[in-house]
Amino acid sequence: MKQSEPDFWVLEYVTITKDPRTGLVVAIGGTEKASDILQRTGGFLCAAGPRGDYHRLPYGLPVEQQRLKATTASHALLAAGHSVHLDPALNTLTTPDGERDAAVRYLAHLAERASAAGTNSVVAEVLTEIAAPVNGLLPLTREVVVRAWIAASDLQGAAPGEEPEPLARLGDTASSMSQAAHVILRARNHAARAPQPAAPTPPPGTAQPAASRHR
């Protein structure tokens, strides 16, 4: 007797993540029981969306409050038997050292991909990860440098254009990083347009011509 396949109720699964466009922490999916847990333990609010209701944290909460509420809600859901995916960026149990180790592994992985690249398209993909305008590693690093430069200038009471030489050099470095990202993107575009290497020609067969075999 053939056993029928089980039904998969995808809406019973809850995903808690931070929307990159709006900055809202949202919870998608789940049953009415999950909705109750989200509201009671995490302080989530029910909201109407274009594809049905969802939950979100109040807008404007500090980042640490967002992480604490999202982590608390996810553990309460798990304890009640729900399946949950919690965005690692919202998980208070993720340590800074763990995040740093993950970043180091990611960079090492990109270096390996670049070394083993067999096509121009792979090279282009690696360069995109480095210099993509919004989420590229270099623009994100530049954002850190810019914020550190502004913070240091404010703490030292330096007016714009009157920073001490080291801070002024830091601002120049941020500008150089923008130029470097532009250069890398141009190289990415060139690699993406370059023709792919031709497939290797198979070696000639060793079989003799039919006429020779019949002699």
List keywords for this structure.
single chain; 215 residues; alpha+beta; five-stranded mixed β-sheet; 52% helix; flat
Task: Describe the fold and architecture.
This protein has 215 residues and is α+β, with helices and mostly antiparallel strands. 52% of the residues lie in helices and 10% in strands. A 5-stranded mixed sheet has the order 3-4-2-1-5, covered by helices on one side. Helix 4 (120-131) runs antiparallel to helix 6 (165-193). The radius of gyration is 27 Å and the shape is flat. The termini are far apart.
Could you give a short description of this structure?
The protein is of the alpha+beta class and 215 residues long. The protein has helices at residues 32-41, 63-79, 96-115, 120-131, 137-155, 165-193, 210-213; strands spanning 14-18, 25-28, 45-49, 52-56, 84-86.
Note the run of SSEs as H and E.
EEHEEHEHHHHH
- Which structural category fits the helices and strands? alpha+beta
Order of neighbouring strands in the sheet with most strands: 3-4-2-1-5
Distance between the termini: 61 Å
- From the spread of the alpha carbons, the general shape counts as flat
How many helices? The count is 7
The whole-angstrom Rg is 27 Å
Could you give the count of β-strands? Answer: 5
Mean pLDDT: 85
User: How would a crystallographer describe the biggest sheet?
Assistant: 5 strands, mixed
Provide the fold topology.
Layout lengths: L13 E5 L6 E4 L3 H10 L3 E5 L2 E5 L6 H17 L4 E3 L9 H20 L4 H12 L5 H19 L9 H29 L16 H4 L2
Parallel strand pairs: 1-5
Antiparallel strand pairs: 1-2, 2-4, 3-4
Helix pairs in contact: 1-2, 3-4, 4-6, 5-6
